[in-house]
Amino acid sequence: MNPMTHPGGRQPLAAWVVVSIGVFALAIHAVVFQVQADWAVFYKAGANALAGQPLYRYEDLPWVYKYAPVTAYLFAPFAALPETLARWSWVLLNAAVLVRAIHLWASMMPRPLPRWAHALVVVLALPFVKQVFLYGNCDTLLLWLALESEALRGTRPVASGAFLAVACLFKPPLALLVLVALFSREWRRVVAVGVFGLALLLLPVLFSGPSFAWSEILAWRKMLEDSTGPLICANQNQGVFGFACWFLSPADGARYTLLAAGLGLALASVLSALLVSLARVDAARARLAVTAVAVYCTAVLSPLGWRNNLVMLVPLLFLLLDAALLLRSRATFAWAMVAPGLGTLMGLLAYEILGRARFQQFLELRLFGLCAAVTAVSALVLQLRVARRGLPEAPADQH
Description:
Structural class: mainly alpha
Largest sheet: none
Radius of gyration: 21 Å
Order of helices and strands: HHHHHHHHHHHHHHHH
Mean pLDDT: 89
Distance between the termini: 26 Å
Strand content: under 5%
Number of strands: 0
Helix content: over 70%
């Protein structure tokens, strides 16, 4: 049995049918009724990779490719297809890997949750999942890669490292999980991340030669430097750098940078203090919580922590529900649902009530990001309460 799964962790089929229907319905709605702007960037990057053309073009701003050069080869097979077929394939693939990611994390929980709780996680993550499918982004793919890596770390550390290396090439902040692996002395996994990461970075040399490959790496770094600043205070930025825009703007220079860093440090300090306290009481719960927090922090601490990036909150939503149910208090459960529930209501109703123009102004409040941060802290507070009480892991059917 995989040591990362709970004992007898058979997941109820009915729960996963409901989760799959909900996720795929959101994906199909997005691909039918919306234009996937990020997907258009990925499709073009795949075509440029196939043709050996530069990936980073200033004439494409603001919709420019921002991932490492080697990642464009992932989109090359899609670029070989007609655009409509490729777009459908991409969004449905993202739906499939999201269902897989949710299933993986549920299997890593210390006990199986009630059937309805799996569906509730999707509902609470709706504002972020909907945004991923709306733009055709790859956040669900990155969540799956990270959690697949975690699920394999105990039994297949080399494969685990390979999954994490791919995730880090797309989103370098996911290297937080490498730090967790180092702290946990998972040496084979760490070495595998380094070996596979370096091999993948060098892969473009085989296709386009060392000179062109190096020029693309330099162009990638330059594009990140030039394109990040103007977008930091965009209303879709729901991370700590967006929070700093409540008070200052990047035009304020060092003052803005220090404020954003201070907000990030404050949030990270609170989460870290709760993790340390949890580790002193229950090391197993703490290890799971560290992974969930690291995944979430890759979104909230990113300079461009877009709303769709906050799909990385899903593991913490599971921990929140798990603890709220174990504490067996209706008041506690209601309190735990306030922040994520408010986020879901805003995701469902705010645009319809306010209209497009006012909704864009509403996003400037960064309430989606604020609700996510409160949810993250609440999940750890409740997990700590459960650990301190030494509550038994009751069968899910009792709830």
